[in-house]
Prior knowledge:
Strand 4 and strand 5 form a beta hairpin. The protein is globular. It is built from seven helices and 25 strands. By secondary structure, the chain is α/β, with parallel strands linked by helices. The strands form six sheets. The protein has an eight-stranded mixed beta sheet, sandwiched between helices. Strands 2, 4, 5, 7, 8, 9 and 10 form a seven-stranded mixed beta sheet that branches. The termini are far apart.
Amino acid sequence: MLCGTRAAAAGRLLLLRSGFGSGFRRHGSGMAARVWLEPGYKCLSDEPVRVRVGGLSPLQPVTMRAGLSDEKGETFGSAAFYRADERGELDLNRSPSLGGHYTGTEPMGLFWSLTPVKPFSRLVKRDVAGSPLRVHIEVFDGHDGDPQERPLASCVNERWFMKEGVTRIPVREGRVRGVLFVPPGDGPFPGIIDMYGSVGGVVEHRASLLASRGFLTLALGYFGYDDLPKDFLNLDLEYFEEAVNLLRHHSKVKGPGVGAIGISKGGDLVLSMATFIPHVIAAVSIGGCNANTLGNLHYKNITLSGVGITLDRAKFCESNLIDISEVTNNPKDEENKDCIIPLEKAEGHFLFVVGEDDKNWNTPLFAQQAVERLKENGKNNYEILTYPESGHLLEPAYFPFCYASFHRLVGLPVIWGGQMKPHSIAQIDLWPRIQQFLRKHLEKQSKL
């Protein structure tokens, strides 16, 4: 079965070259164009900047381009068409894009629309402590914006992942493997365990940002890292309980409870943690399932089997992409009853985050079933955030949109879903809401 073509593919023609210009030059008006950022050229990656251009001709058409190279050398770029005002100035907080990767007034559009030059590459920041993402911003004359020309003006935005004073500490204690991020100051701070999904290893960029916002955060590995299992076909929830105890006994953590945040497979793991581990009192599940997925989960004398899959329901799309949104079976089917997480047993609180266009699995259905189960058992310890036209990979604010990338388990590129602009706006809305939820349940807790 073929999926429809994506307009985003056409936008790839606008991508920035791998080399970036610098400085400024004079143009037809004799004035020197200049581009600058407010409040400055350095910031955290979840912070907005105001992009302004001056020294243009009145009503001059220009092309704004942004680009970066990641730690693997992969290049990402974006472009948008603008027109200067009567004074020859441009302010992306007020000026609408007339075309390109996005349209309308989008102050951070150049950043969230950064698109891989190599199809299906996913931007992941690995060295969160030693280097920022350096986003090169350039201004070109006209709406063709030929990147072979020298830009009228350019600057660089350094987008860091660790606030000054945050400490990064590799963890190898008992069975626990991961990286701890400690905010500056004496604390105590809310404690958070942060996990990603089938990508494996330890993903640090969200945890480091949470620490920069005042959460003492453990980016936890659970497979494919150090001496941990190579897969997650049989996971032991007592490993996660050990990590919880390690975190909550840290001298700077405000206890006795901690929170957990996970995306994809990590999303159902944090639901199981909040259900079975008493000291997990706030769980954020982003694009998660209400059942245990992709393998068995053991805890003491309990085993949750993994909900089944039906590979025949995969949709093979153009550009060798796969839509696997219908592959995971319905948790409510009779054969899957032993996979469902008994959420009603949890004393803590849940935040379910749903991208309505999730193409990894049927997140809207799973969240609906989770809420129904809680209601049927007289529980109201949940919140749900639903975002139309948003996909599976909901990241911190302003992180570039990823429509499709290589899936470790599938072995091919898969569609994650979502439309670039609404998905990116959802990330901007979601990121502070996650922090508010965690603070609400962790900062005012009393001793058990």
